[in-house]
Design brief:
alpha+beta; Butyryl-CoA Dehydrogenase, subunit A, domain 3; 3 domains; 12 helices
């Protein structure tokens, strides 16, 4: 299977590549091929703003909100060229790929006009407030509560609770937060999807240090945090539907960019095997071939699922995507360590810092845990994609 593009689409590819090459060889050369989520963070904020000014930030959005009305093929082309040319990871990912499409699909026009342009222009970063200490893979076990009170400027939601694993939470201006807004409700019922200012006295973001010695996410505490009553996406009490819509957009065109990053890691792994002679080892060669085949399968499945993701719903094949790429990437990390040997146990700088394939290995250990463990993913596939009976749950 080979994805083919028209002459017009190839011309679009040339336009994308030319703009990216000019920027990444010129004013933003110092952030090209960055291997860290937090390195040169403020410079990457300026990069997000440059993308927005040229209307490259969220090309699939409608033009009135800062996008380009790009076709699905154009979005795929941009995602692949962006990664191929070494552009830095998008620190605005949550707003551009998750919240923005969710608001376009579920929000009202006033909300769209207010929030979307600032995301497209790189002015605001958004945090995802889903997981909690007791609501990770079991997301519907949310305990963070929000109640309506009269504030100085009208009714407001007052939020109490805790979220965790909030990427870039210490830097974000806004968060989309799933809260329980109906007292006594359980499970998916009674949840609402709120837009909450993160820079206020009632919000405390405490960074968590990972084993790669980075602080890429936080635990966030809400203690009397407030947001206006109309900052609800969708219906009050209907937040589960909106939250699931966000997860469908997470499997959009950006998945192709993720795979381009994986392809770069696979190439680095092959180069490492050649450097130490393990490219002649039949067992290593077989594992490399399996990794290559898995990456191609991943691409074909991503292309299959993209069209339904545009409509805010998960197709059956989309339910398999997370467990497939996470398991594949974990195996790639293990293969990298087997190829590096003893060198893989040494840090790359004084103190505690790992780069390249070593970092791939460490990051990949979490892939099968966050965003739903592999065990939970199997339940989701069985129940939602295949329609099998729900697993018995205790009261």
């Amino acid at each position: 299977m080979q994805l083919s593009f028209t002459a017009e689409e190839e011309a679009f590819r040339s336009e994308v590549a030319a703009w990216l090459e000019e920027q990444l060889s010129g004013p933003f050369a110092h952030i090209r091929y960055i291997d860290s989520h937090l390195e040169k963070f403020e410079e990457r904020r300026r990069w997000e703003q440059a993308l927005g000014a040229a209307r490259w930030s969220c090309i699939g959005w409608p033009s009135q909100y800062g996008g380009r009305d790009a076709t699905l093929a154009q979005q795929v082309i941009f995602a692949e060229e962006y990664t191929r040319l070494g552009a830095p990871g998008r620190i605005g990912h949550n707003g551009i790929e998750l919240f923005g499409p969710t608001l376009i699909h579920f929000g009202n026009e006033e909300q769209k006009q207010r929030f979307l342009p600032d995301i497209a222009n790189g002015k605001t970063l958004w945090a995802q407030g889903y997981s909690e200490p007791n609501a990770g893979s079991d997301l519907s076990n949310v305990r963070t509560k929000a109640r309506l009170e009269q504030g100085p400027n009208g009714p407001e939601w007052v939020i109490e609770g805790q979220k965790i694993w909030t990427s870039f939470g210490q830097f974000c201006e806004w968060g989309f937060v799933v809260c329980r807004t109906e007292e006594g409700s359980r499970g998916p019922a009674g949840l609402s999807y709120l837009m909450v200012p993160m820079k206020q006295p009632g919000v405390v973001a405490r960074p968590i240090t990972t084993m790669t010695n980075e602080e890429t996410f936080c635990e966030v505490f809400f203690d009397g945090a407030r947001t206006p009553a109309n900052n609800v996406v969708g219906e009050v009490g209907g937040g589960w539907k909106v939250a699931m819509g966000t997860l469908s957009f997470e499997r959009g065109a950006s998945s192709l960019a993720q795979q381009m990053g994986f392809r770069r890691e696979l190439a680095a792994l092959v180069n490492a095997a050649r450097a130490n002679g393990l490219d002649r080892d039949s067992h290593i060669r077989q594992r490399v071939a399996e990794a290559y085949a898995g990456l191609r399968i991943m691409r074909y499945n991503a292309l299959r699922m993209l069209s339904n993701a545009q409509h805010g719903r998960l197709s059956p094949e989309a339910y398999t995507y997370k467990i497939f790429w996470a398991s594949w990437h974990r195996k790639l990390g293990e293969l990298a360590m087997d190829i590096l040997g003893a060198e893989g146990e040494l840090s790359d700088a004084e103190g505690y810092e790992f780069k390249g394939l070593k970092k791939t290995f460490l990051h990949s250990r979490a892939d099968t845990i966050y965003a739903g463990t592999n065990q939970i993913q199997r339940n989701i596939i069985a129940e939602r994609a295949l329609g099998l009976p729900r697993e018995p749950r205790g009261q």
